[in-house]
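Obj: model holo form, ligand = iron/sulfur cluster.
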Amino acid sequence: MKCSRCKKLACVALPSHHAGFCPECFPLFFTRQVETAIRREKMFTHDERILVALSGGKDSLALMLELKLQGYDVTGLHIDLGIPDSSWKARKKVEDFCDANDLKLEVFEMEAWGLPICDVKQYVDRPVCAVCGKLKRHHFNRIAREGGYDALATGHNLDDEVARLFANTLRWDTPYLSDQGPVLPASDGFVRKVKPLFRLSEFETANYAFLKGIEIHSDPCPYASGASFTNHKQLWGELEHRSPGQKFQFYNGFLQRGKLAFQALEKETGATLQPCEECGSPTSVGRCSICRIKESVHRKKAAAAEG
Ligand code: SF4
Ligand code: ZN
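Output (holo structure tokens):
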């Protein structure tokens, strides 16, 4: 197969775009997709300060590098989760990557804050990933808000978005369906959230990271249990294989035609938010669920220490 741009030998075939690219031209395709996403969805401008959530995986690091190359004012934010034998490796990859590329980085330590994820796993009677995800979203938003950032960018790609949309649709989860999309505007103590990689598949992002020589953290989290999410991705992988372009059609069709209906539904039933009495984060009750989880873990831990 020949490169669709320069006619040299292609190394990446993209059936959904009826195209293929050589190692030099593929990053240009990637750049165009990110530019289109930012422009069409009005994600942010070159005058704004963007906080980029960096896990150390291929998507977040590829996003950070690409936004820097496009001249945006980006700062990385890594949350050190405090998972023994795992978190330090992810943190090191992020720190090395930011050093090597002269990128600004903030690191937030869950252990220093008083609630490492290993304590969540031990003392909270709920799936650890559900609580971990909630804690990460809480701190990303809080740090972006307190730091005066204009937007928080995450490395969610098309496969992530389609798997999430599919899961939300299977449950007809209207609050999540009304919120899902590449841009969530700022409101009620929440900063604007953007996903500039939403037009690019996991395969495309992995190729970009590889061709740019990005060293990624690829060890699975020892607490990972995302079985249904993985199943949905596999299912969509088969659909896409049989009918290239299906993923984007499904997601884009939802954004164009489905989302507004769910938003209208939620406007009638959505809860009113106010700042948490303790931490100031938006919540529908006096103290937010994060402050309550933290207190409950501290209580159980103290009781366990007393025997
Ligand atoms: Fe947190 Fe679960 Fe992800 Fe591990 S797999 S980082 S516990 S959400
Ligand atoms: Zn709180």
